[in-house]
Amino acid sequence: QVQLVQSGGGFAQPGGSLPLSCAASGSISDIGLMEWYREAPGKQRELVADIVPGGADDYAESVKGRFTISRDDVKRILYLQMNDLKPEDTAVYYCKASIATNVKPFFYWGQGTQVTVSS
User: Fold this and answer.
1) Would you state the pLDDT for residue 102?
2) Contact residues for 87 (Cβ-Cβ < 8 A; gap 6+)
3) Rounded Cα gap, residues 44 and 40, in angstroms
4) What span, in angstroms and rounded, lies between the C-alpha atoms of 15 and 30?
5) Which residues in the chain show pLDDT less than 50?
6) Predicted local confidence at residue 65, as pLDDT
7) Cβ contacts of residue 18 below 8 Å, gap of 6+?
8) At 88, phi and psi to the nearest 5?
9) Are residues 119 and 48 in contact, defined by beta-carbon separation less than 8 angstroms?
10) First-last CA distance in the chain
11) Strand locations in the chain, DSSP E?
12) Contact predicate 98/109, CB 8 Å
């Protein structure tokens, strides 16, 4: 059984930093695309950043230059370092990954982590 377990997040003041992690476990043969999404109250879930094996990444315009996505394919952990946080970054953050087991790959989601930015 594949699981994505998130950690990190919490509360920060504007201009502060928070890290997020997402650890994959289970009978995994390969992990492909990995992504971070967020969902703010009253808004649709949006893609924040993504990263493929090999490290090529992409970011939403709203977080470029402030957030950094990375992955450790040995430990099977996805990271999101969030710097210079703004109140509009307040949301529940979710990781998502394309994971192959013994069959074709499926997308799995983490449980979600609250990030609150406020003075």
Assistant:
1) 80
2) 14, 117, 118, 119
3) 7
4) 36
5) none
6) 98
7) 8, 9, 10, 12, 82, 85, 115
8) -75, -5
9) no
10) 41
11) 3-8, 10-12, 18-25, 30-39, 46-51, 57-59, 67-72, 77-82, 91-100, 106-109, 113-117
12) no
Backbone angles phi and psi of 105, in degrees to 5:
-70, 145
Contacts of 71 (CB under 8 A, 6+ apart): 34, 51, 53, 55, 77, 78, 79
Q: How far is residue 118's CA from residue 85's CA, in Å, rounded to a whole number? A: 9
Please return the burial class of 19, using the count of CB atoms within 10 Å of its CB with bins 0-12, 13-18 and 19+.
middle
What residues have CB less than 8 Å from 115, skipping those under 6 apart? 9, 10, 12, 18, 20, 38, 82, 85, 89, 90, 91, 92, 93
